[in-house]
Structures are given as structure tokens and as C-alpha cells.
Amino acid sequence: DAMVIQNPRYQVTQFGKPVTLSCSQTLNHNVMYWYQQKSSQAPKLLFHYYDKDFNNEADTPDNFQSRRPNTSFCFLDIRSPGLGDAAMYLCATSRLGQPYQPQHFGDGTRLSIL
Amino acid sequence: AQTVTQSQPEMSVQEAETVTLSCTYDTSENNYYLFWYKQPPSRQMILVIRQEAYKQQNATENRFSVNFQKAAKSFSLKISDSQLGDTAMYFCAFRFKETSGSRLTFGEGTQLTVNP
């Protein structure tokens, strides 16, 4: 089945130690999104890619970066994680020009900071 | 900017009964889409139902239906014959009818618990 896969499901890192979360998709969607979701809160969009065109949200901290080397993969890099960055990180995909189609979400990566 | 409000942080319902989750939104746009997503504990967020703003007819998907009131900017979700598997966080979401990214704006969510 076509899907969105996030690895790892759980990630533990140390305060200040860079960490990378990965997302892959087999849907061939041209838009990929990264959301941060803290406990019992709504997902908050960090940024998205339309193909290789990167779109950052105005309030996304500089500590968060992203890479999309090809259509299938997208990475979220946190350069110096702080305690406040502990959260679930969700990757989602969609096809541009089809706003009625739902975004497809991965299972998420739960990030813990020691 | 558009906002989405879910005024019920938590709700509970007995199995087999009906429950309605409320959602209101604010936008100056006329063309948009509305969605309800379900996020079970530690599981993937999945689409429950969707509505196109220019359609007056309320969307229905099996036990799930919406009451879309465009003038009132209200988009409530009704779950009939509630099942234990319906226990989840439910998010109402808004999306412009645009081509650049088509981002979703989520409400804060309603935690629904279905009791046996």
C-alpha cells in the first residue's frame, strides 16, 4: 500500500545534540509537510516543500531545518534540541492543486530530550 | 488569517449512542475545504470526513456526518452508533482552495472517549 513512513518511531537525544528525523513516501506526492505536535495540542506546521521549493513558516525557529533530496524523502534536522522541542513530529504529504484530497500522515516520531 | 476553534476539549459517550463534536472557523474566503481528522492514541492521523464549502449538502460517510452551516461558519461532526474504536482525538481542519501548498489549519482538538 502507498504510504508515508517515518523513522524512527521514537527518538531520544541529548540536550544540544543534533538529531535528524526522516520521512519517506510512496504516494509520489509533490508536497511534503513537517508538523510539530505537543501533548494534547493541534499539529503546528513547521514548513513544507513543494517539489524542491522550501516554504518556511514565519514562526519556525532557526533551530529547525529541512532537506528534501528527492520526491520520496524529506528530513527534519534539529540543530541544537532544547527541552521545549520534545514533541511528536508528523510528516504529511499531498498533491498540489488538489486541496480537496486529504493530507496523508505518517505515524510520527516521538522525540524525547534528555 | 483563518482560525479554527473546537470548544470541547473532552467529550465522552456511551457505546452505541450518538455524539456531536463542534467546530467553528473564521475566514474571509469563500472557497475552501473543511476536514475532520481522527488521531487514535499513538496512531496515525487519518481523515474521517470532508466538506467542500460550495456544496450545500452535508457530507456523510457511514456513521459519520457533518452539519455544515456556512453562514454561521460552523462545521460539526456527528458520530452515530459510537464504537469503542472511535476513541481518539478529533481535529477539525480548514484548507484554502489555493494552489500554493494547501496548508491545513487545525483546531485544538476534542478528545472523545467511548465508554462500554
Explain briefly what this protein structure is.
Chain A is mostly beta strands. Chain A has strands spanning 4-7, 10-13, 19-25, 31-37, 44-50, 53-56, 64-67, 73-78, 87-94, 104-105, 109-113. In chain B, strands 2, 5, 6, 10, 11 and 12 form a 6-stranded mixed sheet that branches. Chain B has a 4-stranded antiparallel sheet with strand order 3-9-8-7, with no helix packed on it. A two-stranded antiparallel ribbon of chain B has the order 1-4.
Name a few traits of the molecule.
heterodimer, A: 114 residues, mainly beta, 7-stranded mixed β-sheet, 4-stranded antiparallel β-sheet, 11 strands, 0% helix, globular, B: 116 residues, 6-stranded mixed β-sheet
Descriptive report:
The complex is a heterodimer of chains A (114) and B (116). Chain A is globular, with a radius of gyration of 13 Å. Chain A is built from no helices and 11 strands. In chain A, 0% of the residues lie in helices and 51% in strands. Chain B is mainly beta and 116 residues long. Chain B has strands spanning 3-5, 10-14, 19-21, 24-26, 32-39, 46-52, 60-61, 64-69, 74-79, 88-96, 104-106, 110-115. In chain B, the strands form 3 sheets. In chain B, strands 2, 5, 6, 10, 11 and 12 form a 6-stranded mixed β-sheet that branches. In chain B, strands 3-9-8-7 form a 4-stranded antiparallel β-sheet, with no helix packed on it. In chain B, a hairpin with a 4-residue loop joins strand 8 (64-69) and strand 9 (74-79). The termini of chain B are far apart. The mean pLDDT of chain B is 92. Chain A binds chain B through residues 31, 33, 40-43, 45, 48, 50, 55, 90, 92, 94, 96-100, 102-103, 105-108, and chain B through 33, 35, 37, 43-47, 50, 52, 89, 91, 95-104, 106-109, 111.
